[in-house]
Write a structure and sequence with these properties.
By secondary structure, the protein is mostly helical. It has 18 helices and no strands. The protein has helices at about 5, 15-50, 55-60, 60-85, 85-105, 105-110, 115-140, 150-175, 190-210, 220-230, 235-265, 275-300, 305-325, 325-340, 345-355, 360-370, 375-390, 395-420. It is globular.
């Protein structure tokens, strides 16, 4: 039996529970900030390496493919790791592996081979995957299950702070103060510094977590565990459809962010240089940050499923607007998508694992497995962009959000089917 199943719950009720959980919650939210910063650096890295290695859109999107394919390969083993050794050891493993991935950028720059950059990104993403599998269910369990969506949205707001700061810092470090790709144009020398800094930060945080006392918690009560242990996750339609929902959401969000620099450089949209476009990405992710702080409060009173459906429909309308317009209208409408993306991941995640009992760790692994959408959807959009143009390529994330809207409208019924099976 795993540590999280055999140890007594750390928490007590009332104010003592809140006090016991406050420090662990603060500690875990720092991880959300960090992996947000790391992930969004890809949006700036893509146009940098695209210019250095003279890549097509499809070839450039291999950056996201290698990064997010790690979720597909590592998520299930990470779920078993957390189940067997606990959340804290999962976090430590993720931090160390991610730091190794960052250090691999140095030889990649020296050798100047694209495949080495892709390898480094895969290792980095493997560490981030373990962090995700550990942190998301842990934060969800640190308090009242009824407010799990609110708690995850608060943590994800810190994640969005990282994604907001990331493009600004990354744009300056990768493109230089002048913002021109002509600086070190033939090499990728500017990539070394930000990733070596990240490696140092990751290792420092790992040392802090090694000495930090985190509460050992039960995922769910015994009655819930007994009911769930005789069932398969395939019998939980709200989880299965939620896996598809996470696939679509992450794929669409990453695809949109990955194309923004090149989209804003298009003469029909804004005709901006890379460094100016990179700064605008901060508004896309900054909107998500603002939306998550708002969502953390709103979701205490509004049903999570309704919030998902409303936001998905709003994004569909914004995508149709940016695809059918030009200039500032196209620019502002695509940036506004970030605001409505805000609550998607944590809310879909929390409603998909609701009521899974002892199967929650495995369900979390499934959901993180679906983050592979960030590898496949941008690649598909790259193919469409190469053949039909970058503006038309936004049809790909449009289809994803149509599915998410359907999931939001139907997840309550799907969850009820699972409860009926549990009896």
């Amino acid at each position: 039996m795993s540590e999280i199943n055999t140890q007594q719950s750390f928490a007590t009720s009332g104010n003592n529970e809140n006090n016991n959980y406050r420090l662990p919650l603060i500690a875990m939210t720092t991880l959300f900030f960090l992996w947000g910063f790391i992930t969004v650096l890809n949006d700036v890295l893509i146009p940098r390496l695209k210019g250095v290695f003279d890549l097509s859109y499809t070839e450039a999107m291999l950056i996201q493919f290698c990064f997010f394919s790690a979720y597909f390969i590592v998520s299930l083993p990470a779920g078993y790791l957390v189940k067997r050794f606990g959340y804290k050891n999962g976090v430590l493993s993720g931090l160390i592996i991610a730091s190794l991935g960052c250090l691999m950028f140095y030889p990649a720059v020296v050798v100047h081979e694209y495949w080495l950059f892709l390898s480094a990104l895969f290792v980095l993403a493997a560490g981030v995957t373990i962090l995700q599998v550990s942190a998301n269910p842990y934060v969800a369990a640190l308090g009242d299950p009824k407010t799990a969506s609110s708690r995850l949205n608060l943590a994800q707001a810190l994640n969005s702070l990282g994604t907001t700061v990331g493009p600004i810092v990354g744009g300056f470090l990768l493109f230089g103060a002048a913002g021109s790709l002509t600086v070190d144009a033939a090499t990728a020398d500017s990539v070394k510094i930000p990733y070596l800094m990240l490696a140092a930060a990751l290792l420092t945080i790992a040392i802090v977590f090694a000495f930090l006392k985190l509460p050992v918690i039960k995922e769910h009560n015994e009655a819930s565990e007994c009911k769930a242990q005789n069932h398969s996750l395939l019998e939980a339609p709200h989880l299965v459809m939620g896996v598809v929902g996470i696939f679509c959401y992450v794929g669409a969000e990453v695809a949109i962010g990955s194309f923004l620099v090149n989209y804003f450089a298009d003469p029909n949209i804004a005709g901006l240089e890379e460094h100016a476009a990179a700064k605008l990405i901060g508004y896309y992710w900054g909107g998500a940050m603002v939306g998550r702080f708002i969502g953390s409060a709103v979701l205490k009173t509004v049903a999570p499923s309704k919030a998902v459906a409303f936001n998905a429909v709003s994004i569909i309308l914004l995508l149709l607007l940016t695809m059918s317009s030009s200039g500032n209208i196209a620019l502002i409408s695509v940036l506004a998508i970030g605001l409505f993306n805000s609550i998607m991941f944590p809310t879909i995640f929390s409603i998909a694992i609701e009521g899974l009992g002892s199967l929650t760790s495995k369900g979390s692994g499934w959901l993180c497995l679906a983050i592979v959408g960030g590898a496949l959807v941008p690649l598909l959009q790259g193919v469409v962009a190469d053949n039909f143009g970058i503006q038309i390529s936004f049809l790909v994330p449009l289809v994803c959000y149509i599915y998410i809207a359907w999931y939001g409208l139907n997840v309550v019924k799907l969850s009820q089917l699972w409860q009926q099976k549990l009896g």
